[in-house]
């Protein structure tokens, strides 16, 4: 196959691994800077241009779109889809999962366990909002945040009121969530590919920190997940419409709680911790998806 990888960081571990594995399996791979792609949206001849010329056709595209460029990145991916290029994850699924509020509402609607989460617009509602999620300590999250940025633990009622009011008054959209004390600063990242958990790791926040993101100094180790955690991760990815996803789960007294469903999960931490060839599983699935697409109708 001829495969395009949309990535602004060709030297990034995840991008390099996908390129290496795909090439080793006999595929032609090109890494395209998402923001350097520009489009002709004409219905009679939709096309994508890059570095001054029109791109040729590709059999498949792997989107590695950063959260900060979601709008432009999904527009580029939609253009590939218009040109009948098979996408590893669809533009619709990526957009759905990147909207944290919409994603949580969808997961809730389908009965997936979640931390109690509040959302409000007016500072007048802050006291009741705090009560609604069980009071302090609680977690405040920017809707546009990523990799632990814009996530604040408020340990007292007064701190919670101050932080929430400051975010609202500066026109930031936030989620207010209960703090799951029994998780002890750890979460579980499950890598789901084609409806199966192919790898999992436990991420532990460093001392004095509650965010377990590896970008924030957290550590990772292999973990054996429970059948309920496995089923939750698979179902969460399915609800988002993602064939490849990183599902973040907290272990709580009331069972697994989903924090987030990531459409472009990093591979370095989970491959190192689990010893699994996740990149290989992704390329194998891409081959399977292509064979299904090209299979003639009976």
TrEMBL record:
Coiled coil: none annotated. GO terms for biological process: SOS response; translation. The lineage of its organism: Bacteria, Pseudomonadati, Pseudomonadota, Gammaproteobacteria, Aeromonadales. Its EC number is 6.3.2.-. The keyword Cytoplasm does not apply. Pfam families: RimK, Rimk_N. Gene3D superfamilies: 3.40.50.20, ATP-grasp fold, A domain (3.30.1490.20), ATP-grasp fold, B domain (3.30.470.20). It is an enzyme of class 6 (ligase). Mg(2+) 2 binds at residues 260, 262. GO terms for molecular function: ATP binding; metal ion binding; ribosomal S6-glutamic acid ligase activity. One of its GO terms (cellular component) is cytoplasm. InterPro entries: ATP-grasp, ATP-grasp_RimK-type, ATP_grasp_subdomain_1, RimK, Rimk_N, Rp_bS6_RimK/Lys_biosynth_LsyX. Keywords: ATP-binding, Ligase, Magnesium, Manganese, Metal-binding, Nucleotide-binding, Protein biosynthesis, Ribonucleoprotein, Ribosomal protein. Mg(2+) 1 binds at residues 248, 260. Mn(2+) 1 binds at residues 248, 260. Residues 104-287 form the ATP-grasp domain. HAMAP family: RimK. This is Probable alpha-L-glutamate ligase. ATP binds at residues 141, 178-179, 187, 211-213. Binds 2 magnesium or manganese ions per subunit. The gene is rimK.
């Amino acid at each position: 196959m001829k495969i395009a990888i949309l990535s602004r960081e060709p030297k990034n571990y995840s991008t390099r691994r996908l390129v290496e594995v795909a090439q080793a399996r006999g595929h032609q791979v090109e890494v395209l800077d998402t923001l350097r792609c520009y489009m002709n949206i004409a219905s009679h001849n939709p096309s994508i241009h890059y570095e001054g010329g029109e791109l040729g056709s590709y059999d498949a595209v792997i989107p590695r779109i950063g959260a900060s460029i979601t709008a432009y990145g999904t527009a580029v991916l939609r253009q590939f889809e218009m040109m009948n290029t098979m996408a590893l994850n669809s533009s619709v699924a990526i957009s759905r999962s990147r909207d944290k509020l919409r994603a949580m509402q969808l997961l809730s609607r389908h009965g997936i366990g979640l931390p109690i989460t509040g959302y409000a617009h007016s500072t007048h509602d802050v006291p009741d909002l705090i009560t609604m999620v069980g009071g302090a300590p609680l977690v405040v999250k920017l809707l546009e945040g990523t990799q632990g940025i814009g996530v604040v633990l408020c340990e007292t009622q007064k701190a919670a009121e101050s932080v929430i009011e400051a975010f609202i008054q500066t026109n930031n959209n936030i989620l207010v969530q209960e703090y799951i004390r029994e998780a002890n600063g750890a979460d579980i990242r499950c890598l789901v590919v084609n409806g199966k958990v192919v790898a999992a790791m436990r991420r532990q926040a460093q001392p004095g920190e509650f965010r377990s993101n590896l970008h924030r100094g957290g550590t990772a180790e292999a973990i054996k997940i429970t059948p309920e955690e496995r089923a939750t991760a698979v179902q969460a990815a399915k609800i988002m419409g993602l064939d490849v996803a990183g599902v973040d789960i907290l272990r709580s007294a009331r069972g697994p709680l989903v924090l987030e469903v990531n459409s472009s999960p990093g591979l370095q931490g989970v491959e190192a911790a689990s010893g699994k060839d996740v990149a290989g599983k992704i390329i194998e699935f891409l081959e399977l998806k292509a064979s299904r697409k090209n299979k003639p109708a009976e």
